[in-house]
Amino acid sequence: MIETTFPHHLTKRSIRAALEEDLGLAGDITGNAVIAPDETMTCSITSREQGVIAGLPLAINAFRVHDPSIEFTRKMHDGDKVEVGDVVLTIKGNSRAILAAERVALNYLCHLSGIASLTAKFVEQVEGTKAAICCTRKTLPGLRAFQKYAVRAGGGRNHRYGLDQAILIKDNHIASAGGIKEVLDKVRINASHMVRVEIEVDTLEQLQEVLNYKVDAVLLDNMSPDTLKKAVALVEGRAICEASGGVNLQTVKRIAQSGVNLISVGALTHSAPVFDFGLDEA
Amino acid sequence: MIETTFPHHLTKRSIRAALEEDLGLAGDITGNAVIAPDETMTCSITSREQGVIAGLPLAINAFRVHDPSIEFTRKMHDGDKVEVGDVVLTIKGNSRAILAAERVALNYLCHLSGIASLTAKFVEQVEGTKAAICCTRKTLPGLRAFQKYAVRAGGGRNHRYGLDQAILIKDNHIASAGGIKEVLDKVRINASHMVRVEIEVDTLEQLQEVLNYKVDAVLLDNMSPDTLKKAVALVEGRAICEASGGVNLQTVKRIAQSGVNLISVGALTHSAPVFDFGLDEA
Amino acid sequence: MIETTFPHHLTKRSIRAALEEDLGLAGDITGNAVIAPDETMTCSITSREQGVIAGLPLAINAFRVHDPSIEFTRKMHDGDKVEVGDVVLTIKGNSRAILAAERVALNYLCHLSGIASLTAKFVEQVEGTKAAICCTRKTLPGLRAFQKYAVRAGGGRNHRYGLDQAILIKDNHIASAGGIKEVLDKVRINASHMVRVEIEVDTLEQLQEVLNYKVDAVLLDNMSPDTLKKAVALVEGRAICEASGGVNLQTVKRIAQSGVNLISVGALTHSAPVFDFGLDEA
Amino acid sequence: MIETTFPHHLTKRSIRAALEEDLGLAGDITGNAVIAPDETMTCSITSREQGVIAGLPLAINAFRVHDPSIEFTRKMHDGDKVEVGDVVLTIKGNSRAILAAERVALNYLCHLSGIASLTAKFVEQVEGTKAAICCTRKTLPGLRAFQKYAVRAGGGRNHRYGLDQAILIKDNHIASAGGIKEVLDKVRINASHMVRVEIEVDTLEQLQEVLNYKVDAVLLDNMSPDTLKKAVALVEGRAICEASGGVNLQTVKRIAQSGVNLISVGALTHSAPVFDFGLDEA
Amino acid sequence: MIETTFPHHLTKRSIRAALEEDLGLAGDITGNAVIAPDETMTCSITSREQGVIAGLPLAINAFRVHDPSIEFTRKMHDGDKVEVGDVVLTIKGNSRAILAAERVALNYLCHLSGIASLTAKFVEQVEGTKAAICCTRKTLPGLRAFQKYAVRAGGGRNHRYGLDQAILIKDNHIASAGGIKEVLDKVRINASHMVRVEIEVDTLEQLQEVLNYKVDAVLLDNMSPDTLKKAVALVEGRAICEASGGVNLQTVKRIAQSGVNLISVGALTHSAPVFDFGLDEA
Amino acid sequence: MIETTFPHHLTKRSIRAALEEDLGLAGDITGNAVIAPDETMTCSITSREQGVIAGLPLAINAFRVHDPSIEFTRKMHDGDKVEVGDVVLTIKGNSRAILAAERVALNYLCHLSGIASLTAKFVEQVEGTKAAICCTRKTLPGLRAFQKYAVRAGGGRNHRYGLDQAILIKDNHIASAGGIKEVLDKVRINASHMVRVEIEVDTLEQLQEVLNYKVDAVLLDNMSPDTLKKAVALVEGRAICEASGGVNLQTVKRIAQSGVNLISVGALTHSAPVFDFGLDEA
Known about the structure:
The structure is a homohexamer. By secondary structure, chain A is of the alpha/beta class. The first copy, chain A, has helices at 11-23, 29-34, 56-66, 95-125, 144-153, 171-177, 180-190, 204-210, 225-235, 252-256, 267-270; strands at residues 40-47, 51-52, 71-74, 81-82, 87-94, 132-134, 167-169, 197-201, 217-221, 240-244, 262-264, 277-281. Chain A folds into 2 domains: 8-115 and 272-281, Quinolinate phosphoribosyl transferase, N-terminal domain (Aldehyde Oxidoreductase, domain 3), CATH 3.90.1170.20; 124-270, TIM Barrel (Alpha-Beta Barrel). Helices cover 41% and strands 19% of the residues of chain A. In chain A, helix 1 (11-23) crosses helix 3. Chains in contact: A-B, A-C, A-D, A-E, A-F, B-C, B-D, B-E, B-F, C-D, C-E, C-F, D-E, D-F, E-F.
């Protein structure tokens, strides 16, 4: 996979809000009281765990938005694997400014590296199978674009970004339309030709019915690995097979071995534990 | 503790951004294609776990900002304990609107209830000791006020909200000022009389030196329960004793038994796993 | 086609900006100088042309955002055909408020009805063929969601909303990747499974090559009706055929008769002449 | 006329909104999938029509806001006449960035150049008469400052920018005040000394009455060229004479020959067809 | 003068920013700690001085934006004269909410009433003369529309709202253009017909030269009352005469008696002392 | 006291709003009409009074945000004492740009220097006593962070920035809780350990009762210097003593001589007269 572009067009607004959240009106009252205004420092951000990093552009920009004169030397890039003690970035500049922006920078970097690292663990489990790991819309408000980027940095793929990007037909929609045929008719008539159509099925019977029509993907929800295997056989390559439900690091390998193309994991974005970085003075 | 006020003055901006994140320009293209514009539905948000809930006002307002005509019946309140299957909210209104705002509403509710529930587990561990559980500034960008509220809903307390609310002197500050006496002198001269002063110490020797001066609190960083016990004895009630570092559900009880007043836990806000709720049609 | 939902989640920000643009700091200095503050009026918005209307929710909300006490009676709905003299809306309320918001309300309604009416003329031309009319990303900055909605109100369809919604491979991309096979390989590897893939071709030879691979749609750019016919025959239903380039009300019928599925028309959103409405006192 | 300053203080907000509109959360998923992240390109924006250009600063800044490292060579300036094939700008930089911002840049440039070119055609028609061509408040929401600038670039003049800039008394105002004398009395008493006063009249009788009082300008609405001539004669230079209503490229010359000072044309900003530019790789 | 409309279209943004400024992320930590969440109170805002009030709509909306369920009874209106002890507003609602928004509401009301009251004192001084009192662009950032409204509430008039509303030619402009004739030529050619033109003169000689041309107003800067008298005589009603410089409550009467039409006073908006109101529980 | 950091993280939003307030959509129509677009000028900001300056970073950034190519030479710094005629800043750049941003830049500088200078006068009065001068929350909406900074520049100290920074218990709170003991109990239980607690008392009896409990500060409201002296004696250093009410330049010295630690003065931020600066061409 080639390196994807960071969603730079969204960073400034997010970083400004995060800095204001931490600095309020009064700013860093500790630094302002005890550090001389012209003191400078050199420090580095060091990994305290093993994993995959993501979010360096946000961390760097958090410092830069606060003080454009701070200088950086990148030692690593998003998507890189790190070991305990690896320096990912060195920072040089005004001490008050660096300490005032430190927490915001680390909050982005630690959260996104946590996502990338968790994704990488899932990806590792499914190596050798046809399955890719992907995220969901179960993201934290205001952070979706960054979280989905972190999933890619960890080797995962993105499901639709929002309700606006693709059609995903669920139980409610089928019930409202009056059946699988009816809902797919409505989609064909009403939806743009430029959006993919996926439909959720809970049983092999439902799947069988769906396969009478043309869909881009089927979401096989909460099926056991054995049932998934049968589903994949039924589909015969006519649609992308996505498994979801009950996926964790213990179960994902068996799910992947069923032959599905995609396994979606909400935990990547809603429950990834933080990745531990420290900022240490040189 | 009396019920705290939800940070309502911050909800609209956050909710609008979250809705735009999920709806983009095109909106819910699935619902718009397959559900009749005037269809209505009644549904409920049901707990799928045991824990403590937080974030109902955000969930309700996510629906309301999207469509002010949606109606709600609250079955539970923030801070309540829930069991699997408990209905926390019923919702009635336009089907397209409810399904379009559902994910945003649940993303808030599941994340914040995850924080409240994790907090409650820590709080339970320290019952019977003098220690309270509190959060840190290791929050997710843009969500701090809501996350800190969720900690309170779970029975925890808040540390300072931001760099602007209280003085917390760390290694860097002591080094920059030239010593503990010097840094506390600078604080006394430069800081407002209306902010508390806490200082981080790593050893009992440092603590001993600090106690020559007046501080509101001492942050006892990464000390073993035994060392903490000695520290508490040294302090003799002259300052609030806060323990931090290496705190998890396995260690927190022994830490609390050292006699500290506060235990700060970054994981409450940076690593709480999501709490599982479902939205089911009635 | 069923009625699509208006992009209500985007209206407030747009309307507020439009009102501030017209009212500045000083507001309607004419009305404030000559109309009594408590005077009320009843008036109606009347069509002065024949066509299809769009944008009533924006017009109504422009008044409402300025003064929530203004009352409305809708006589028509978006997508309705109107004749000269048809009343589409009656408005009752404070005179100063109505006159202050009038221009903003009409600017939305006249522009969007212009788009809907132009779209309807194109749609009428292609009646009886397989072709649908759709818009492009050649929209006016800040108005895309509303303009694309107006196209739908006029009976057209939407192409992708933005660069984020679907893959559209153009000359530049093919050149950069090193060929058609190469670019499609990259897309397969790097893009999400939830986005459609369209590729632009300028000649039948290019089309022939493209058809060796799987794509959702082909954009047949600047081809004559005869060449389009051959292209459609080549494709044999394996991809959606979209024609673009040189489309106007004179040429669109012959283009449609080539058998293409879609005809994209930039003019719908970048060059639609305004539709004439008047606001008259009752 | 000397060159007017572009409304630079308004560009960033508009451009950011336009970029987010096109890039969403996911960005240019085509470029990100198929173009190497460090690829660079050189390209130029070329005119495909004859006309007058406007909006280069917005086009350049659309690229710059997206990627500050993109470099430009200006070959033309706003207000310049261009022929088919004229290069107006060359652009050099990162390929992904250039292609991601291209559409937004062109959407501004094509729309504003369309306005400037249409204005220039009207201006050409009235050459040799006393009349200047000016625009109205019938602008597209969010774009007024840029549209009015484009009118100036095309050789036109601006009417009031908004309701806050000048007094324009219409039928409603006269009726509400109880007559022409009464409305002008109210203006004299209530309005600032720093704003001009114009009054709309539909007949020569009304004009006659108006001329009993002091006004800066009269708006002669929907009068035939002959009636306009009589109106100009009546006014005898005591006020600026503005003609409006029924103005198009066929009628404007005769209207101008009536001797009026100003002819206002809503179409300049509400119905100007786009001007065609292409972005071609060098 | 008839009652002017409050700039309601600008209130929400200002009030939200002001509330966030006072409440931060944590809100009213005092009220939240000590007042029961469902406690209600009735209170009133009482004048503690004699003067003229302005800003009631902002005060009311500050409470309303914070909590829409708070109820009000207006006892007075903007522009009313108040005595010590007059109740201007009674307020009933949730205690926490009222106390949380109180300071913001009073900050608006006290500042704007201070401006209205100071204006009224100047207006009183010039009673019986031809002079009106007006404000300048020397306003406090972000508050201009409200400050200029308060001046009107106090019986004053507004000078231009901003650089965009009228032409005011100063020394710099004359020097840049190369003389008075040259600068007025440029204005005639380049400026819109819908904006007034005022020119600043420092001496009677300059005034004499200016009177060779047509201007709407002359700004007689820093002239003594005697010189002003001569200036007014020279002008002979051909332009509005505005005096500025050295105006205070001691000097304004003699300046007014010179016969000028307008006296502009920067102090109204940049130096008005606060007006004292108290919020007392019923 | 060491130099505090300017709240730079808040400047851009404030300056942009202030520039838009003055420039509207049309910009500086005078400069645009009469000054050549490429003309440059050199000018300086000169003090016309004696006092203490504050706000230079805002003034400089007001020019820079409008035109980043303007160059500056700082002659003075915030907190410096200036005499009549002192040059504080020289400015070089495009004439139109400098004149367009001048008023906004001066509006910040004059207001904040007014606050710093008034603060310095109060500070001078209390020299030799134990008392520091501090500001209140009676600030002007949107300007609090800058105003509180100006107080520090003038030698004063800041009281709490907002309701979120510290506990201040007033009459209402005591009444609501049911007494002094009760309110302090609630604070102890409900409030964070990281916020200081101050309580307002009106009489020595109330003070006596308060001193039975632990508080950080007592606000001695509207007491005479003699009563204040007795209060200070009662407190015996167990809490910070703050005097408020009836403080002005005439009374402040005697209040300070009572031995209080702090005197809060609302006038610093709500009623400081402007400080006079001029911008003169070199």
